[in-house]
Design a protein that fits this description.
CATH class: Alpha Beta
Helix content: 25-40%
Number of domains: 1
Number of helices: 3
Distance between the termini: 47 Å
Order of helices and strands: EHEHEEEEH
CATH architecture: 2-Layer Sandwich
Strand content: 25-35%
Radius of gyration: 20 Å
Amino acid sequence: MRREADAGPGVDVGVGGVGPLTPHASRLTNLPFTRRTAILLVAASILMASCGFQLRGRTDLPFETIYVEGMDYSPFTGQLRRAIETASSTRLAENATDAQAILTLIGESQERSILALSGGGRVREFQLRYRVSFRVHDGKGREWLPADEVILRRDLTYDDTQVLAKEAEAQLLFRDMQADAVNQVLRRIQAIRAASTLDS
């Protein structure tokens, strides 16, 4: 399992991480090794999720209070809120009017592109991409951080005889990218302090 941040663009084959990676999946049945591997990978992903998210180091945000809105049903939003609560002195406001800053989560997506094909035309490698867009403002017209986007990439080798295992591995990589995206969003918010100091 390779991890690369800047692989070249491929051919888009799907968005949202839904469904198998290849149409060959429908012809694959009764693969005991594949099923065992898939079960182990899914169990590992559940264990990782149950352990909760840990921010890499403490992050001091430049606001006393912040309100997070948008993407209410995304796991990313829950991870981000927990990170703010546990790794910074900034308090989460219960509503926008009580917050010094408002963090608006605009959207997220999971994408897959083909990176490499075998001589027979079978997929040998995918690139997975995770995107999340956001902005920080005060709700009164001031933009602390205009609409911005975090994009993360991971490369995934593929074997169409192990469809279930590779799909579980892809979901683990997407979760890993979500955790990295939380860190990157908070670092960009942290940088607002330096920018505002230069402007003053």
